[in-house]
């Protein structure tokens, strides 16, 4: 990761902090989308957020950026950006904080670009609006950022309309645009899913390079746990709107304990998997967001489920200072050993 070396006592500050975040639909009978999510992203850290489709990853990303869709609300819990609770800020200051500190990169770069405007005017808007930079200076800075993301001919790109660029180029433009305000963190929500497979690795490599060279923290949202394990410092696993495990990426393959994490790892085809072989999947499907869950949400699909799993939600325990897990089977296995509760995220 890109964090400068610290002494034993110096822990990098949190740039993102979610505490017990509950997000629901806004109705008389609300659907619970996030069921109490706590996580942190520290300065300069590269964190992967993984889980199957529907587990709540995008909702986490949008909640941090204060961009929850119409009809979806934060019911309780808090979001902190650079140590400031979003709730405590008036709308204008909240917008300014997020505009400066957080860059959001979405799956489909076209969604972040206005198709009827050239790239140049779109890119420089943030500098003109948040920083009062002159047009000429803003264009110079935009060209610099485009070069940083590997675009050799920024003049041509600044003069182009989005549809004149490939998907990979558009995603680079969106990332460059996000970098203009000098953010502390880039939240990249499945940034390569919509791209040609040949350019996917180069966009991921770019994010890793930004992290290591510019010390920008990255929250990389993905459904591919193996790729995230390779690129990130830390992996957070979500299931049905909850965090089930969080651990150092280096420990993922050997030390992941949650049955869902293990199943996710097992469902990713390896290089040895014959191309004609049927891809492994996790049997069953995740609960619907409308389901009322008394116990562990993974219980109907879990090979290790026991009686209490159907009725009691497992608590998140710390196995060591960088590894947390929420699972009764793991907890029972550890019953003979002291376990530190109420971990950091
Ligand atoms: N606007 C919405 N209204 C109702 N349910 C929603 C809305 N947005 C997302 N959801 C539900 O919340 C769950 C989590 O969605 P999402 O955060 O997009 O998951 P992921 O990004 O992991 O695929 C899904 O089951 C989805 O159907
Ligand atoms: S709490 Fe129970 S059902 Fe849930 S993952 Fe652990 S063993 Fe399986
Ligand atoms: Mg998503």
TrEMBL record:
Recorded family membership: Belongs to the ABC transporter superfamily.
Main location: membrane
One Pfam family recorded for the sequence: oligo_HPY
Location(s) in or outside the cell: Cell membrane
GO BP: peptide transport
Protein known as: Peptide ABC transporter ATP-binding protein
UniProt KW ATP-binding keyword: yes
Keywords: ATP-binding, Cell membrane, Membrane, Nucleotide-binding, Transport
Family matches, as NCBIfam families: oligo_HPY
Record CDD domains: ABC_NikE_OppD_transporters (cd03257)
GO molecular function, one term: ATP hydrolysis activity
ABC transporter domain sequence ranges: 16-265
PROSITE patterns: ABC_TRANSPORTER_1, ABC_TRANSPORTER_2
A single Gene Ontology CC term: plasma membrane
SMART domains noted in UniProt: AAA (SM00382)
Naturally occurring in which organism (per UniProt): Jiangella anatolica
């Amino acid at each position: 990761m890109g964090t400068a070396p610290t002494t034993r006592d110096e822990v990098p500050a949190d740039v993102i902090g979610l505490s017990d975040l509950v997000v629901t639909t806004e109705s008389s009978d609300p659907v619970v989308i996030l069921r109490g999510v706590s996580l942190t992203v520290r300065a300069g850290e590269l964190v992967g957020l993984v889980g199957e489709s529907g587990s709540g990853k995008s909702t986490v990303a949008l909640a941090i950026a204060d961009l929850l869709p119409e009809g979806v609300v934060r019911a309780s819990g808090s979001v902190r950006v650079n140590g400031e609770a979003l709730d405590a800020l008036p709308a204008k200051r909240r917008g300014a904080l997020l505009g400066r500190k957080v860059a959001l990169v979405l799956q489909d770069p076209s969604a972040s670009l206005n198709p009827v405007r050239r790239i140049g005017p779109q890119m420089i808007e943030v500098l003109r609006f948040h920083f009062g930079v002159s047009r000429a200076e803003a264009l110079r800075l935009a060209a610099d950022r485009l070069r940083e993301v590997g675009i050799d001919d920024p003049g041509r790109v600044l003069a182009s309309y989005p549809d004149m660029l490939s998907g990979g180029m558009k995603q680079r433009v969106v990332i460059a645009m996000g970098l203009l305000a000098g953010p502390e963190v880039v939240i990249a929500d499945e940034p390569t899913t919509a791209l040609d497979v040949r350019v996917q690795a180069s966009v991921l490599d770019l994010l890793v390079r930004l992290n290591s060279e510019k010390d920008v923290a990255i929250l990389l949202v993905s459904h591919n746990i193996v790729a995230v394990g390779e690129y990130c410092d830390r992996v957070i696993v979500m299931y049905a709107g909850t965090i089930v495990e969080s651990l150092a990426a280096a420990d993922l393959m050997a030390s992941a304990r949650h049955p869902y994490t293990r199943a996710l790892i097992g469902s990713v085809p390896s290089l040895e998997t014959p191309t004609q072989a049927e891809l492994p999947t996790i049997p069953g499907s995740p609960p619907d967001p409308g389901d009322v869950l008394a116990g562990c949400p993974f219980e109907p699909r879990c090979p290790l489920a026991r009686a209490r799993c159907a009725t009691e939600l497992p608590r998140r325990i710390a196995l060591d200072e960088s590894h947390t897990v929420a699972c009764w089977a793991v907890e029972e296995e550890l019953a003979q050993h002291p376990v530190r509760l109420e971990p950091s995220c």
